[in-house]
Write a structure and sequence with these properties.
With about 150 residues, the chain is an alpha+beta fold. It has a single domain (about 10-149), classed as Hut operon regulatory protein HutP (Hut operon positive regulatory protein HutP), CATH 3.40.1510.10. The protein is built from four helices and four strands, in the order ααβααβββ. The chain has helices at about 10-15, 20-35, 50-60, 70-85; strands at about 35-45, 100-110, 120-130, 140-149. Strands 1-2-3-4 form a four-stranded antiparallel beta sheet, sandwiched between helices. A hairpin with a 6-residue loop joins strand 3 and strand 4. Helix 3 (about 50-60) packs across helix 4. It is globular. InterPro entries: Regulatory_HutP, Regulatory_HutP_sf. Keywords: Activator, Histidine metabolism, RNA-binding, Transcription, Transcription regulation. Pfam families: HutP. Belongs to the HutP family. This is Hut operon positive regulatory protein.
């Protein structure tokens, strides 16, 4: 049996990049073997708040985070902001700068360290296009945020 990759950020990025059911299944099986929680989705908007809301909604609906526990929501929020800073090159703004984004995202929650005392971590990977709100006037971008819970 192959050893499952415990790099939580790499798992989130690879899951985001995955674009076939077979590839999704392979990645998901590995994360399930580790007992990790995960989910992926898509969002497109000129509004930063809508992107954050889409990622948070998926995390809550799939039980990746408990919305009633502040530290879980706080960790998720910071992972999202860190990932979006990568996508927006540090300027976490879209519509006000006449930019729009079409993004795929993945959320992974797990225990990436051998020492159980290190606890749980959450990773958010975001990949897609960003640019002027005109088709063909965008480029690829990626961001990754990792935070402890």
């Amino acid at each position: 049996m192959n050893q499952v990759d415990t790099k939580i950020g790499r798992q989130a990025v690879m899951y985001t990049f995955s674009n076939s059911e077979a590839e999704d299944s392979r990645i998901e099986n590995g994360m399930q073997q580790l007992g990790w929680q995960f989910g992926k989705g898509k969002v497109g908007s000129m509004e930063f708040q809508k992107i954050v809301a889409a990622i948070e909604t998926l995390a809550k609906r799939q039980g990746i985070v408990n919305q009633d526990i502040y530290r879980e929501m706080h960790a998720l929020y910071h992972a999202i902001i860190e990932a979006m800073q990568g996508v927006t090159r540090g300027q976490v703004e879209l519509g006000g700068m006449l930019r729009t984004a079409g993004l795929r995202f993945a959320i992974v929650r797990g225990t990436p360290y051998e020492n159980a005392a290190e606890g749980e971590w959450i990773a958010v990977a975001v990949y897609g296009t960003i640019g002027a709100p005109v088709r063909g006037f965008e480029h690829e971008a990626i961001g990754l945020g990792i935070n402890h819970i």
